[in-house]
Specification:
By secondary structure, the protein is an all-alpha fold. 36% of the residues lie in helices and 0% in strands. 1% of the residues are buried.
Length: 155
């Protein structure tokens, strides 16, 4: 309750106009609303949303479609049949966690190879006096690369 008072005092200091329902709505759980039955279905049974791919493989009149003779067909049979989209064997949140774990392991191994496993240089880099012999080689302007022309390439 004290955090609620702190937030409302901060909101009043910043001249925010928040009603109690608007900034408290995130904490209220969503209520599951019972969907009304489609009036076009009439007395057709309301079947559960279960893919035929999740049913056991044996013991059916039609082995391929995993149905018995005379069973009612689901309203969304195109999606829930054996020919519909594959049912994921791993829940999406777990698959995302496993993917992020694999990516982080791969990235960590790359950083390990780049920074920890690279040996030190066996020699000391050569040092030249006078700013790396700039003056002795004629200065920076003399050492710039010259542009190639088509005549030089043809020769």
């Amino acid at each position: 309750m004290s955090s609620l008072r702190i937030f409302s005092s901060v909101a009043s200091k910043r001249h925010l106009k928040l009603s109690h329902t608007s900034w408290r709505a995130y904490a209220t759980p969503a209520t599951l609303k019972h969907q009304e039955k489609d009036p076009q279905l009439g007395d057709y049974p309301d079947l559960p949303w279960v893919s035929n791919q999740e049913l056991p493989a044996r013991g059916w009149w039609d082995q391929q479609m995993r149905r018995n003779f005379g069973d009612p067909i689901q309203e969304y049979d195109e999606v829930l049949s054996m020919w519909g989209p594959d049912a994921p064997p791993v829940p999406p949140h777990k698959a995302l966690f496993q993917l992020s774990l694999a990516i982080s392991a791969f990235t960590g191994f790359g950083f390990l190879c780049k920074y920890a496993l690279v040996p030190e240089r066996p020699t000391v880099p050569r040092e030249y006096p006078y700013s790396g012999l700039v003056r002795e080689l004629g200065g920076l302007e003399e050492n710039k690369a010259s542009e190639e022309t088509n005549e030089e390439i043809d020769e």
